[in-house]
Amino acid sequence: MQSEPDDWVENVRMLEASLGAVVPEDGSLLRVREQRGNGAGFDPTTWRIIAEMGWLALRTKEDDGGLGLGLREATALCAGLGRGLVPEPVISAILALRLVSAAGAGAPEAALTGETIMLAAWQGGASDCDPTAGVTVSDGRLNGRKIAVEGGLGADIFVVTLAEGIAVVPKDAPGLTVTGQQMHDGTFLAQLDFADVLAEVLPCAGMTTFVREAMLMHAAYLMALSERAFEITLDYLRMRKQFDVPIGQFQALQHRATEIKLQLELARAAIGAAGRMLDRSEDPHLAQMAILRARSRAGGLARLTAREAIQMHGAIGYTDEADIGLFARKAMVSAGLYGVDTDLRRQFSAMRDEREKAQ
């Protein structure tokens, strides 16, 4: 199912049509509410549906049982998940399968079918986007720490990134401690502490590229949740009246809404450009810069939209019953995942300067 130059458009249509299996067409967030703080923060039954739809195998090579689709398809899927605030760690699972496939180990059938939940553990520190950091290997034993593993409490297997490659580690491996932290949106991030954990290390070229691909998918998720939050806010501005006039007619609020709309379209364009460059195998240096730009824009957009949406809703926006509060919480939690905006901009500037010197 490898994408031809124009096949991605039809692939996106099919993926968007399949989203109804997980994201209610009426926009209901009842399932999202029910999963908050429950178990691992996501639903194992829904996970199996996600696997059956083939979403986890989206970026896995066809030779390993995957779909072998491009970043434009992957970002379209993640955008649909973002609009529905889907809590399942789909991006982490896609990354894990991508890493295992690239290492030549073949994608485990149980991970592809959803019977086993395999997630990526790549981040070594809060401001660290280097997948080789955090855990070291000596004499076949892992020591160190990985943080911010989305849905890690529900994982059966972790794909751990190292300077030497990857290690596939079961959750119950001797010496591995998994600690969960409940986030503001009701999901959990896991911290993995390794103390002489015995593991086989597999060489895996391209880890940084794969993590940045996940960054781009996460950017699409952030962009789409911001878009949906903006839509809810516009509906409220049309409905809420003050002095017998819809507050959406107030010029000050119109200006603030216009700024959100502008930033939303800039983020959408940046994500689309980055996906196109990667799918067409254009200049890899420029493509990586495009990912950093897109992810930084999406993070800033999510924070802006969350802040403005709550302010425009007033006190009702802070209540648990208001759906906009769920979007604001998700934005606050997710905007810092897959890189901190300031660090991403610093990386972008460094790559730009490096390119200018080389020319």
What is the topological layout?
Layout: H1 7-18, H2 30-35, H3 44-52, H4 71-83, H5 90-102, H6 109-113, E1 118-121, E2 135-138, E3 141-150, E4 157-162, E5 165-170, E6 176-182, E7 188-198, E8 201-202, H7 207-239, E9 241-242, E10 245-246, H8 251-279, H9 284-313, H10 323-334, H11 341-358
Parallel strand pairs: 1-4
Antiparallel strand pairs: 2-3, 3-7, 4-5, 5-8, 6-7, 9-10
Helix pairs in contact: 1-4, 4-7, 5-7, 7-8, 7-9, 7-10, 8-9, 9-10, 9-11
Protein name: Alkylation response protein AidB-like acyl-CoA dehydrogenase
Domain Acyl-CoA dehydrogenase/oxidase N-terminal: 38-87
Cofactor: FAD
Walk me through this protein's architecture.
This protein has 359 residues and is of the alpha+beta class. The chain folds into 3 domains: 7-113, Butyryl-Coa Dehydrogenase, subunit A, domain 1; 118-202, Butyryl-CoA Dehydrogenase, subunit A, domain 2 (Beta Barrel); 207-358, Butyryl-CoA Dehydrogenase, subunit A, domain 3, CATH 1.20.140.10. Helix content is 50%, strand content 15%. The protein is built from 11 helices and 10 strands. A hairpin with a 5-residue loop joins strand 6 (176-182) and strand 7 (188-198). Helix 8 packs antiparallel against helix 9.
What is the oligomer described by this structure?
A: single chain
Per CATH, what is the topology of the largest domain?
Answer: Butyryl-CoA Dehydrogenase, subunit A, domain 3
Distance between the termini: 38 Å
When the domains are counted, the total is 3
Which CATH C-level class of the largest domain is it? Answer: Mainly Alpha
Largest sheet: 4 strands, mixed
Which band does the percent of strand residues land in? Answer: 15-25%
Give the beta-strand count: 10
CATH architecture of the largest domain: Up-down Bundle
Organism: Primorskyibacter sedentarius
GO molecular function, one term: flavin adenine dinucleotide binding
Domain Acyl-CoA dehydrogenase/oxidase C-terminal: 216-339
Cofactor: FAD
